[in-house]
Amino acid sequence: MTTTEPTAETIVRTAAARAVGAIGLAGVGLVHLLDAPGKLSETPYMFWLYLALILASIVVGSELLRTGSRRAWAAAAALAGSAIVGYVLTRTTGLPRDHGDIGNWTEPLGLASLWIEGGVVLLAGAVLAATAPVTRRRTTPAAATRAPRLS
């Protein structure tokens, strides 16, 4: 089995995707850092969820830069996707002891967060799709695949 060396274009494209993904995760963390002080007094558990999201964004962003592995991209998609789900829940049903944002879809910081998180999810999805392992179907002898003769 022979392996092909990546081209300069592939190396640059991969590095750019990893950098954009890490910057996107930094943006997710920054938006939640800016919103965190108010959460500490309103709903302390949301503050701790924000803190976990911020720390996870740093860890996953670092892993994207360090390895760019499929696992890191999947984690980036899951992290940003979970933040989107949290935003939708707070705007629709609300969360325990946090009903103040129901219907508040136009908050600028929330919209910025959605754009960043959506971009990370789309980028991660594109990278995962482009790097999906190729599987080959087993071929069977032609005689085994023929329909039986009815005589």
State the end-to-end distance: 47 Å
Using only C-alpha atoms, the radius of gyration works out to 22 Å
**Topology order in helix (H) and strand (E) letters:** HHHHH
Number of domains: 1
Class by alpha and beta content: mainly alpha
- Biggest sheet layout: none
Low-confidence residue ranges: none
Taking all residues together, what is the mean pLDDT? 87
Principal-axes shape call: globular
Number of helical regions: 5
Helical percent range? over 70%
State which percent range the strand residues make up. Answer: under 5%
Total number of strands: 0
Break the fold down into its secondary structure elements and pairings.
Elements: H1 8-42, H2 44-66, H3 70-92, H4 108-130, H5 142-145
Helix pairs in contact: 1-2, 1-4, 2-3, 3-4
Task: Characterize this entry briefly.
By secondary structure, the protein is an all-alpha fold. It has 5 helices and no strands.
Q: What would you say this structure looks like, in words?
A:
It is a single chain. By secondary structure, the protein is mostly helical. It has 5 helices and no strands. It has one domain. 20% of the residues are buried.
